[in-house]
Structure formats: structure tokens, C-alpha cells
Specification:
Blueprint: E1 3-4, H1 19-28, E2 33-39, H2 59-72, E3 78-85, H3 92-101, E4 107-109, E5 113-114, E6 122-123, H4 131-147, E7 150-153, H5 165-182, E8 186-189, H6 190-194, H7 202-211, E9 214-218, H8 231-242, E10 246-247
Parallel strand pairs: 1-2, 2-3, 3-4, 4-7, 8-9, 9-10
Antiparallel strand pairs: 5-6
Helix pairs in contact: 4-5, 5-7
Bound molecules: zinc ion (2 copies).
């Protein structure tokens, strides 16, 4: 695998290491196309800023620091600079404006919350058996795909639904059909593999395979050395074989305007 567009930096406060180490590890891992996609900065109208994001005050330096490194390594690796961002119907225009002003080059969707996160949002990682929440998650992801600015959906199986299997099947089929129709890939998330999380969720990928939704892979690196772990790729490959997934390889990045 010679690409990865899901890379964080220490600015989000739950990733560690220097930016340059991520680039060095990527080169060592044979990655030719590296994308940084740290959690997009955003401040809610009442001033609340969630602590898992790049602080707004560091948005500009995130981009400019990485641009300097991009120049330094330009002969060894191609680097893109973007964000992992949620789609919150209430705040989408504002969030997109921030990303555009900072001149982010691409966005991946990471729908970590439903119902716009704050003040009444719900973390997608649940777990929950509430069918209504699952439907809202799928609606929001599909709406996000329709905006045309997200290059792919990171961990599309992040919603930890423990309720009725038939409801899960019909909702996730809806999500996968939209991905296929709109040609927006779904990411097998390697952080889930590394940390043995509930995702990649077998029941999700089984449906993705049946529908034939386009599939890509992201390391979701929060440490530079995450890029060197080859075992996780073997797991992803066996998942793809198990469910006959429509693996497209490197995703095409979409412009954000
Ligand atoms: Zn993160
Ligand atoms: Zn994420």
C-alpha cells in the first residue's frame, strides 16, 4: 500500500510525535502519497471548543508547518494537507468555510457524533440499540456524501449499534448504496485493527461487499510508528477477501470548492 490520507498530528492532543517523524515513517513504509487529515478546528457559537480537535488558534500553523515539510521532502513523497471533519447539518457551512479559509486541500468525513455534537449530540461510538440514532447517523453520512466535498468516509462503521440486526442491515445497505451511487469510498480503518476496536465491524463489511461499495484503506495514524505496522494490512486484506470487497486502492481526492 503506497498511500495513506488519514494521518493526525499532535495538535489534536490525542496524537503524539513530531510532524516530521510521520513523514519519515511514511517514507520508510513505502508510502508515496501521504495526506494529513487532523481533526478540523471548530468553535461552537457559545465558544465551546471540543478538545479532540486542532485548536482554532493552531489551524494556520498546522497548514503552514506541514507546507514547509512538504517542500523539504518533495522529492521523496507527495504530501496533501486536509482535515478529518464531521458533517453537522447545523454548522456545515461554517465548518467548510473554516477549512476553505485555511486552504485545506481535501476532507475526509469522520462522523464521530450525530446531532451536531454539541450541546445535544451523541457520540457515534456508543454503543446504542436505538434504531433512531442509527437512522440519523446514516442520514447524516448520506447527506455529507451528497455535499461532494468529502473524498471518502473514514470508519463508516463507527456507529456501534447493538440493536435489531434487520434494522442494521437495511440502514447500512442504504449507506453503502449511496456510497456506490455517488462513488465515495468507504474506509477500512486500521486504527480499529490496531486497537482491536469494534470496527472494522464484520456485519458492516459483509453488507458493503454485497452492495459492491467502493472501498479504500486508511491508517488513521495517531503516532508516527502506526505507519510501520504491517500486520494491520494483513487483517485488512483478509477482511477484503472474506467479503469480496470492491477495493479501489488509492482514493481520488475531491476539491473542497
Ligand atoms: Zn483522532
Ligand atoms: Zn475518526
Amino acid at each position: 500500500m503506497d498511500y495513506n490520507f488519514h494521518t493526525h498530528t499532535k495538535r489534536c492532543r490525542h496524537a503524539t510525535g513530531n510532524d516530521e517523524d510521520y513523514i519519515k515513517c511514511a517514507i520508510e513504509a513505502g508510502i508515496k502519497h501521504l495526506g494529513f487529515s487532523d481533526h478540523a478546528p471548530f468553535i461552537f457559537p457559545d465558544g465551546f471548543e471540543n478538545r479532540y480537535r486542532i485548536p482554532m488558534s493552531e489551524g494556520e500553523s498546522y497548514i503552514s508547518d506541514l507546507k514547509i515539510l512538504r517542500e523539504k521532502y518533495r522529492n521523496q513523497i507527495e504530501i496533501k494537507i486536509g482535515f478529518e471533519m464531521e458533517y453537522y447539518p447545523k454548522y456545515f457551512n461554517e465548518m467548510l468555510d473554516i477549512a476553505r479559509k485555511l486552504e485545506a486541500e481535501y476532507l475526509i468525513l469522520g462522523q464521530h457524533f450525530i446531532l451536531s455534537e454539541y450541546p445535544n449530540g451523541i457520540g457515534a461510538g456508543g454503543p446504542t440499540d436505538n434504531s433512531e440514532y442509527l437512522k440519523i447517523y446514516v442520514d447524516e453520512v448520506i447527506e455529507a456524501m451528497k455535499t461532494g466535498v468529502f473524498s471518502y468516509v473514514a470508519h463508516p462503521d463507527v456507529m456501534c449499534f447493538t440493536g435489531n440486526d434487520l434494522v442494521y442491515e437495511s440502514e447500512i445497505t442504504r449507506l453503502c448504496l449511496a456510497s456506490r451511487k455517488l462513488d465515495i469510498p468507504l474506509e477500512i480503518n486500521l486504527a480499529g485493527v490496531r486497537y482491536n476496536k469494534f470496527y472494522p465491524a464484520e456485519k458492516f463489511w459483509k453488507i458493503a461487499g454485497i452492495v459492491g461499495a467502493p472501498v479504500t484503506i486508511g491508517y488513521d495514524a495517531h503516532r508516527a510508528k502506526d505507519l510501520l505496522n504491517t500486520e494491520q494490512l494483513i487483517s485488512a486484506e483478509s477482511l477484503m477477501n472474506r467479503y469480496n470487497l470492491n477495493y479501489i486502492g488509492i482514493p481520488k481526492l475531491k476539491p473542497i470548492w
